[in-house]
Structure formats: structure tokens, C-alpha cells
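Write out the bound-state structure for zinc ion.
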Amino acid sequence: MKYHRALLALAVSAGLSGLAACTPADDKSADARPAESADEFIARVNKTQKEMTPEITSAFWLSSTYINADSQRVAAAANERALATTNGFIEQAKLYDVSAQKPETARALTLIKVGASMPAPRDPAKLKELTTIASGMEAAYGAGKWCVDGDCKDIGQITDILADIEGHSYDQLKAAWEGWHTISIPMRKDYQRFVELTNEGAREMGYANTGEVWRAGYDMPAEDFQAEADRLWGQVEPLYEQLHCYVRGKLEDRYGERGQVDGMIPAHLTGNLWQQDWSNLWPLVQPYPDAGSLDISAALKKQRDALLAEMVAEAGGMSKLTAAEQVELERKADREMAVRMTKLAESFYTGLGMPALPESFYTDSMLIQPRDRDVVCHASAWPMNTEGEVRIKMCIKPTEEELTTIYHELGHIYYYLAYKSQPPVFQNGAHDGFHEAIGDTIVLSMTPEYLASIGLVDKPLLSQEAVINAQMRMALSKVAFMPFGLLIDRWRWGVFDGSISPENYNRAWWELKAKYQGVAPVEPRGEEFFDPGAKYHVPGNTPYTRYFLSHVLQFQFYKALCDAAGHEGPLYTCNFANSSEAGKRYWAMMERGASQPWQQTLRELTGGEQMDASAVLEYFQPLQTWLQEQNQGKDCGWMPAGS
Ligand code: X8Z
Ligand code: ZN
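---
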């Protein structure tokens, strides 16, 4: 995701620095008062941001879609300039008495001072070092390959192996999982230095460390934020434990003793490199195989192959084509399929009454993986300027996971479009979890009925068994994700505050994985590895608690939009597609951007001011009951390492 670093790089997000040893409140002496009034200052920040954003986003776009030394240099230099400008703004923002300003100005001043993802040191040499390391780590991740005897696989190929649990042996899955985790070994030193440098930036602006800066961006005291996240996790933890117990049982049925490690799930057996989404275990855990197919990936692959067959027939048949021409046609089919999937997602949004995507979205986005160069395949959505020029960058394949990721990315895109009339300082999510939740809320509306309406599954059966199937499908992606969404920043907060030292990077990582997720590697992962670096958001420096919050918020949004759409009946049956009332409410919320505290924005949509996971539990109530029955008599839970 780029909005935190690109769009708002200047004034809000990319890096913060400030008056050393001086907190925002204690520097209001007359001689420190700047020449500009606060209103003039904010006007200048907005103007600068509008002017500088296109150049920065272009530099970042190039470095993510053409990984080489030149693009890294250009991106690092652009980032350096942006961060230096930001640092100046932050210093100046601290000179104003926020309480003496009109509300809009006060809000803008507050936003400038909080929530940076990359607090940058003031020392120019260190700033340059920081941006060089940042560009280098992201590029190393994007270009990462696992090579055996000169045969190299990229993240897409490795992902495909792990996802296909039926088609690979236990040892093949293990080799692929370990293979990807070789790419981050060289990042360890850089990451350590990155932590030192951003911590210095954080301290210069009056925070204890980078983690505290991250926690300060939620319109509540930074010191209360961890407890808030813990409270939400406490609400869903029992549901997660039931899902864990059931899935582990299925793995033990399949793999015997090797299907668990001290009650934990082996890291290479969840169908996903990071164990964050278990959807690919569907063939193993599907509750009622005869209660209707939900195999969306198969339907998408079939469509893509049909497209190719059409193209081949048009060209006079396969025998008329050279090998090179065949490859070209395959690419064309891949691209057309990616466009088709994107338009499907777009049609959900336009069906709610939101605008069609601008033409440039389709001409300028990167939808499939290029063949001739390395790119960062990790999906992201980009506001290229402050006026609604938007793109996504993905390596789309015809799978269910990719389809839902498109819906997710378009959530970011429509948020950008909705708040583009706000001044640039307010062009952001109410908080970062809101940004992540927009598209996922739509994904919750992808019920079997909706999927049937777009021709991806057969008309669903209306049995209790079909309900449990549908619930399991959602839980494998949503519930399985939650502890993962929490633990990444538990690790980083510890790294930033020094409680996790470089000698313990990997040990601490696996302790947290054990504690929250109940997953474990089947062989020791010592400090010769740097496993956190094998997850994009660590080298990419994207804060991650946003995704945890999003997984709570999206159920609250969903419930509110279902109410708006006049839905009756159990929450999990709601599909608000084509409801203009739901669309209106959603858009009105999105238009606010960051112009007011998120609590107020949440109230306008849902009636409440608190994040609350009770909608998650309401949604999954049938599955939770079912899981409890299935797990009866089983020895659920696990023994985390070190306990
Ligand atoms: O990074 C993403 C999006 C871009 S903001 C593709 N997500 C997280 C991840 O992949 O780890 C979406 C779900 C969680
Ligand atoms: Zn996202």
C-alpha cells in the first residue's frame, strides 16, 4: 500500500522530526512564533503537497515496477527531499498553539505531527542513508528469488506451490516455504540500521521510538492504543482457537504426527507463506463437500483458458503458431482475464452508485507481472496526485485470492476518489484501518448468492450445510488472519523499543507466532535467518496493525451497510450489492477522509464511536457453534515455545 508513503509523504506520513527534546505543547514562547499564521502555514503545506506529490509517486512507481539501481536511486532521492520538507513542516507545526486555532486548522496541525511511518533523522547524511536502505530493502524483497542449481523461483511461483497442498508432498511444501525464507537473510543488517535511524528521527520529534510514533496516529493517547488492540483480540480469540483446533485436526488426519508441532500448526502447511490466510486449505477442511461447490479459483481458471482457446482459434489454431506467438497469446489471455476480474470488482462499486474508474486507471495500472524485469508484485493502490489520478499495481492470476485482493485494492482507490476534494492534509483514511477495511467490507458481501449472480459458482443450495461451508470459506480468510494482523507490529514495537534486540530478532518472531497464531516451523529457525523480512511489510516498512483493525471494522461497516440496504435476517446472509442507499452512506463516510477524528466518522456510519468485534462474532455465530460441536472431546489449544 502506498498512500502512507507516497501521497502523504510530504506533510503527514513519511517521516517526522522536530525540535529535539521539546514536546509539541511546550514551545509556545513568543520568540519561537513563526512569521506565518497557522492558517497560512496549513495553506502552504497543502500547496506544497499538491505540487510535490506527482513527482514522488512517479519515482516510487518506477522503482516498484522497474527494479534496478537507477530507479532505486531516483526513489531514494525523491523520498529524501520529501522527508526533509516534512521535517521542516513538523518543526513549524509544533510552534502553534493548537487550542487557539479554528477546528480545521487545529486538525491539520495535529495530523502533521502524528502517525509517520518513517520518522527521519534531521542529519542529512543519515537521512540519505535511511532512504537508501528503505529503497534497497523494498527492491530486494521485490526481486527476491529462491534458487536451486540455477533454477530460480519468484514469490508468485513459490506461492503457487504452497497454495496447492493437494499437488505437493509435505517435503515439497517445506522446501518451498524454506526457500522463500532465504531471500530475507541479507536484509538483517539493513533492517537493524533502519531501526536505529528511524528511532533517531522519532526521538528528535519528541517520541520515545518509531513504534510510539506509529501508535500516536489513532486520535487517542499512544499509550492506550496497545490495550485497545488487546481488547479487540480478546473478543475474537476464542473463535480463533476453535478454528485452529479444527484445522489442526484435519492436518493431523492428513499428515499424522507431522501435522502438528506441540499442538501448533506447521508453518509450511497452511497454504500460505505466512500462515495469514488459510483459504487454500479448503480441499482439506471443507465441511460438507456435497453441499455445493465454492471453487471460485477453478471457475476463474476455466474462464481464462476459454479466453485463450478463443484467441488460438481466431489465429487459425495452435499448429499455425510459433512458440513465441503462443507465449504472446498466453500473455494476452492473462491480461484480458485480469482486466475482466478488475471490471467485475469495479462493477460492485458502480452498482452502489460510485463513479466508473477513470480511463487512465486501465491504461496506467500494472495488472499482470511483466516478463522482462523484476517488479514488486505485492498488491498496492496508488493515488498518483491529489486530484484523482489513481492506479493499482498487481500481478493478477485467475484465483479467488487474487480476485478478492482486487476488491480490496479498489477499496483504497474509491477512498482516494471519495476524498479527493478534501485539502491534501486530509486526503487520508479516518485512520489507516479504515483504509484497509473499505474493500474488505465489499468482500464480505461476496456471498454465495452474489458469486452465483456473477457466474462464478452455481446457484447455492439453501441448507444449513451450505451455510457452514460459506462460513468456513470466510473464516479461513478472515478469522485465521486476525492474530497475524496483531503480531507483526508486536514484533516491530518490541524491536523499536529495544525489548527485542538484534540477537533475538528471529527467536522473538517465532515466540510471537506461537503465542498468537499457534503456528511453528518444523525445524529450528535460529538467528542465521531473518524470517520477519520475508513478509513484504517489514522490508516495505508498512505498519501492520491497520489490517488487524480493519478486520474488526469491516464487520461493523458491513452491518451498518446491510442495515442501510434494508437487509433482514442473519447478518451472514447479507449482500448489499446494488443498494444505492448503502452506497450513499458508504461514500459519505469515505468523503470525510481524515478531516475529523475517526470516532466521529465511525459514528456517522454505524452509530457508535468504538471499534468492536461483536459484529465479527455475530457474523460467525453458526460456525462457532458448529466448530464447538466438531471439537468436542478434542484437546484444543497449544503449548507456545518458551511457556
Ligand atoms: O498488503 C495487503 C494488501 C495491500 S494494502 C494487498 N494486505 C495484507 C497482506 O497482504 O499482508 C491485505 C490483507 C493483509
Ligand atoms: Zn490494503
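---
Residues 1-30 have pLDDT under 50 and may be disordered.
Residues 85 and 407 are 34 Å apart (CA to CA).
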